[in-house]
Amino acid sequence: SGINAEYGKQWYQRRVREAVVSTQSTLISLGCFNARSLCNKTCGVLEMLRDNSISICCVTETWLKSDDRAKFAEIHDFGFDVISAPRRGRGGGVAFLYNPDLLKPIRNDVKNYSSFEVIECLIKTDDQLVRLCVVYRSTQAKNKYEETKITKFMEDFEDYLENLVNKTGSPIICGDFNFHVENSSNLNAKGFIALCESKGFIQHVKSATHLSGGTLDLVLTLGNVTDTIPIKNLAIEPNTGTASDHYLVSFQVPVTLNNKNTHTYEEKEVRELSKIDVGKFREDLFSSPLNLSEFLSVDHAVQLYHEVVEGILEKHAPLIKKKFTVQKSEFWNGKCQEAVRERRRAKRKLDKAKKRSENYPELDDLKSEVKDLRADHHEKCIDSEITINRARNEFYDKQLSSCRGDSRGTYKVINKLLDKEYGANKVPNGEAEDVADRLKTFFEQNFTKIRHSTKSLLMYYSIM
């Protein structure tokens, strides 16, 4: 019995240690972005989310349709997933783009409203329930009946907030409300903020989120102590690298997530060269034996150079092990990686120049430098988007070419491109001639659709 008691004690302690290790309080990054159509900038938007380490993004104006399976397949190819609520007519649409390796949001049913679009999902953590909501209120170019539409929106949104506060979970509302809340004299904006405050919500975005200067994309949370969820590190990123005229709103919330995820990591030894103190490195180099020794031969000089420089480098930037996420996309190649590296390098240069410009606002040269670097970053974003899209197209083109004469293999590739389940049992049954005719019709229809989509993308890039 004593042995069993000791074993039970050790088992309990081990389980406690495992529980402590498996959960950790962390900050997850969320985003809010008006895409102005995901259809023509899927790659650009997803790469923007990756560059900003966004785990889940609330997207408005997706312009997606319920049958855009090829677009859903493209999103999955980039390692993301989507929960979409398309508009029945043209334009509009709201969605969540998220990294399924980090989060598993669950879509929640919500009442339909005629004056705005909305979608909700639940994010379950170890210690709380987060209810994430995306709202989009559209406006028309013509201001006819605009006041009537705003009145209807206020009534509908009040009803929505009343229902929301009675639901479980801490609510976070993100979206494009198309109210200029930065304008204190705008009566509609003041009325909207007053409505939110009357229901206990506070608005967190304080700067412009649109190219023209308006604060249109907002983040709302409850202000009371019991149901509130703290919003941390809220930032506006104007350099999205996409053709959208809206900025990315990013923020973080503290949650406790289970540490078990499906990430695949590759461990590499690297040196953090950017952290080297150049002045001290130069001093050590000048006082090294390289400047004091007489070389006996070329081989001696090379050996001494190698030993001295390696020693100084090890002192200032020692080798450390870091984990890198393994790229899961099958089409990803060296050209894609190089294009992404160039884009991120341009972004770092731009961020450094912006900080210098903020510290010395009186220097016009720095402002000019920021302008040039912003243009360079945008160009690198477009280049990387073209490179990645080309790599994906070439990858599937080769797959289709290699399946020539193999109807089963071709069927699998087409199903993957259209985001459908595929397998050995998915090939149509029937007489050989009838099956061939049906496959021929199926491929012709879908090849035409893919070719039309590709031509639209090429036209878009040629205009850019």
Helix/strand layout:
Blueprint lengths: L1 H21 E12 L7 H10 L4 E5 L8 H9 L3 E5 L8 E5 L7 E3 L8 E8 L4 E8 L9 H20 L4 E7 L10 H12 L2 E3 L13 E6 L9 E6 L10 E11 L6 E6 L7 H9 L11 H19 L3 E6 L8 H26 L4 H39 L4 H11 L14 H32 L1
Parallel strand pairs: 1-2, 7-8
Antiparallel strand pairs: 1-12, 2-4, 3-4, 5-6, 6-7, 8-10, 9-10, 11-12, 13-14
Helix pairs in contact: 4-5, 8-9
Question: What would your notes on this structure say?
Answer:
- With 464 residues, the chain is an alpha+beta fold.
- The protein has helices at residues 2-22, 42-51, 69-77, 146-165, 187-198, 278-286, 298-316, 334-359, 364-402, 407-417, 432-463; strands spanning 23-34, 56-60, 81-85, 94-98, 106-108, 117-124, 129-136, 170-176, 201-203, 217-222, 232-237, 248-258, 265-270, 320-325.
- It contains eleven helices and 14 strands.
- Helix 4 (146-165) runs parallel beside helix 5 (187-198) and helix 8 packs antiparallel against helix 9 (364-402).
- It is globular.
- Mean pLDDT is 85; it is low at 16-23 and 422-430.
Helix content: 40-55%
Q: Structural class, from secondary structure content?
A: alpha+beta
**Could you tell me how far the N terminus lies from the C terminus, measured between alpha carbons in angstroms?**
78 Å
Q: In percent terms, what proportion of residues is strand? A: 15-25%
Shape: globular
The largest pleated sheet is described as:
6 strands, mixed
